[in-house]
Amino acid sequence: MKSNTALPKLNRRITIQEMGTFSDKLLILMNDIREQMLAPRPRKRAPSYTISQLAQLCGVDRTRINYVIGKEDSTLPKGSLQGSGKSRVFTLAETQDWIRAESNILMRPEGVLGDIIVVANFKGGSTKTTTAMSLAQGLTLRGKSVLVVDLDPQASLTELCGMYAEQDVAEEDTVLPLIYGDEENLGYAVKETYWKNLYAIPAATPISAAEFAIPKKVMQDRNFPFWRIIGDGLQPLREEFDYIIIDTSPSMSYLTINGLMAGNAMVMPLVPESLDFISSTQFWGLFADLCRTFANLEPNKAFDFVSVLLSKVDNGPSSAAPIVRSWSQRAYGDWLLPVEIPLSSVVGSEALEFATIYDIENWPGGKKTLDRIRDPFDEFCKLVDEEFIVKWQGANK
Ligand SMILES: Nc1ncnc2c1ncn2[C@@H]1O[C@H](COP(=O)(O)OP(=O)(O)OP(=O)(O)O)[C@@H](O)[C@H]1O
Ligand SMILES: [Mg+2]
Fold this sequence. Notes:
- The chain has helices at residues 16-37, 51-58, 62-70, 92-102, 128-140, 156-160, 165-168, 176-180, 210-220, 229-234, 254-262, 274-294, 321-332, 367-395; strands at 49-50, 80-82, 87-90, 115-119, 146-150, 191-192, 198-201, 243-247, 265-270, 305-310.
- By secondary structure, the chain is α/β, with parallel strands linked by helices.
- A 7-stranded mixed beta sheet has the order 6-7-5-8-4-9-10, with helices on both faces. A 3-stranded antiparallel beta sheet has the order 1-3-2.
């Protein structure tokens, strides 16, 4: 039986005037949400280290540390005594002094320029930012001074460096003035962070303006070398920093192209899942096109090494990791690093939302859980550092 009480039809028509007021309402809501998001979070603080941790980082025995502390003429920091048991703890800065003096890790010889490592993969969420920041911190724990450069408008690396991109970072603090041609190099943008010997060139949403500014320059001057703005801007900083690590966005943007061309080494983190693997092959396809385009323009451009790091590796029974690992071995050969970063409940946890594995002092889940993820990161940092140490020594001969 046909009902004569049909529901009234919804009127979905909207005029452009109404659209204007809708956008105003949305703006008010967004401001509210923004206020909540920007509610003060505790500023980041670098961890401190116990004697055992210090000894491990220096690659020496605890007794050696105690011996040096007891020596009258020792100039190394003695740390401070804390807690009821009066155990000795060392700040990050003190720890780095010890590492430089006591470990047998080699430093960059004087007169040799620092190196630029770019972390890239067009696949979103492939752990680029986590890898870039952990590598940077891990290298400072090998006595190096490191600059990280955030080329992603999402600014996650900036946040990991303890800055609130939305609040603390203005356009002029980013790479934009260099892109606009208002600055000659990136020295103006280098910021100290909460982590000793880790400096950052931050990002914020407005850096996406580079995607319009760069092609505009090319339209004005067809010969403008648009791919080397960032690389050229970083050159003078290579004297000051042992490593410059660039984090890129998950897309082939002008900023990403600049990052790729600035690097003299590249690390591609790859999550061993089928779709990620396929997308990584697409990355190399596009990157190869880029290299062909620039081969004549930059005949001397070379990478000291290109590495693929399997990351967030799920070693569970139903994981695709074994099969994707075997594809990766075939595809990438010795580019594939011998160390893998496992999927970890520590990294994935909420406690690490604005932090990395190196920011944690203690983990409620226990030292073993922490070491399971920390050890491979240490190993990764060591591999990268040692590649360059060999190169630096060669350069100094
Ligand atoms: N080993 C790991 N175990 C578990 N979770 C991880 C691990 N490494 C990274 N993650 C998590 O994976 C997510 C993506 O990582 P990250 O932001 O570093 O990727 P990305 O490639 O920089 O992403 P985007 O493409 O958006 O820039 C983050 O939530 C991070 O905490
Ligand atoms: Mg990222």
